Amino acid sequence: MKAGIDMGLTSEGTPALLDLEELLATRLLVQGNSGSGKSHLLRRLLEQSASWVQQAIIDPEGDFVTLADKYGHLVVDAAQSENDLQRIAARVRQHRASVVLNLEGLDIEGQMRCAAAFLGGLFDADRDFWYPMLVVVDEAQLFAPMAAGEVSDEARKLSLGAMTNLMCRGRKRGLAGVIATQRLAKLAKNVAAEASNFLMGRTFLDIDMARAADLLGMERRQAEMFRDLQRGHFVALGPALSRRPLPLRIGSVETSTRSSSPKLLPLPDAPAEDIRELIFEAPEPEFVRAPRPRVAPPPTTADIMAQLARARPAEPSPEPVPEMSPEERAAAMDEILREILEDPDAAFASIAVLYQDFLVRCRIRRVTGEPMSLPVFRRRLAVARAGAQPGQSDEAWEKAVSFAAELEEDIQAVFLLIARAALQKEPCPSDDAIARAFGSRSPARARRIISYMESRGIVVCRTDLRGARIVALPDLGCETAAAEASGKAEPAPARRAAPAPDLFASG
Asked: The domain 4-250 is classified under which CATH number: 3.40.50.300, 3.40.50.150, 3.20.20.70, 3.30.365.10?
């Protein structure tokens, strides 16, 4: 079923149609300076496609909450914990509800963290709920910045990772990213490069005009046209829009934002002396008649009983927490990590959610000292997921941990899981165990991870005469015992003995 979304009119006066099915497969990038009509374009797209596809809007300014009145979008207030936002996002995908994540009122770092948690919940939803969804991110340069700014590196990595997952890996999960930015130069290139459809609006800086012309396949001398575009006029290109650069004008919308563009108002008609007096001289306090105090009615017996029931004895002041020794602190953190990984859902939760849960548990246990940083937590979590025992410190295992620290964060736990099995001469871990260490439920993904690691020269796979998998680690000088790829070493079926060949038979 094809759905053509009416975005407005082309320069020739014909309807500008956007192929919604193609958009779901190829994603969209919208660029334009402030006041060029980006939000108007996004609103037109959302209104026209509201009855066709599920929608999620990451709204940093609260402009799209008005969609709830006419189109039934749920407004999710971001003033919640990141765990709650991730669970809400999972239920949104399950029940196919269109939502607006309202980030208004949060600082930039808070917006980045909340958006990362919500996008992570959409991305990590169970395969049974991978329904098609438009994920619209307004002011995308805030969540996928090209360079570090005033926010912490941790918040930037979380947000940039979530945006990268949306644009690079979201298609197979039914997530179609639609991102809008004021400046292409401020948007991370690996996020912008994944879009195949473009709508370029008015821009003035040479570097942004040059990037827009390159994305549209235009010559550099044609880039000057972006300065002359009127508000609401864009140049479209992409398989869902047009195979050649196509100027178009965005049509009208049915809902409006809570804030509008500034309008000219007449100045107050007052003499300069009066204005000076109002500004520089404090006015005399006006006499205000004090209101007559109202006598409260006497409390009823029910009110008195309720107050007594709510009364609580004064709690004694907490005693100071004694400082922990380094050994006690390490043991407490190991115990907390074990408790987290005992939860069956912990293997499929994002690092951000597990890290926040870890910090909360440390506060509950009164673990003193400086909190563990996120990079250290990633390494400790990878070691714990590999099944290493606390305090394990033999030389071979320490070498494996040091080697894993130089690998990509996604495959550290997988490498350590295989290394532990190899060092202990145990069978090769099953596909399910490898997928779980990676944070997935897909055995096929586990096999792709092993193939990727083998292509990098990290591991070498071979099979024995029964076809059982053996994984060798050249850098550690060891290999696992044989095991089936499924993790179940089933005996080979008995075969009938073939008759001995006649060595003297002719021919």
From this structure: 3.40.50.300
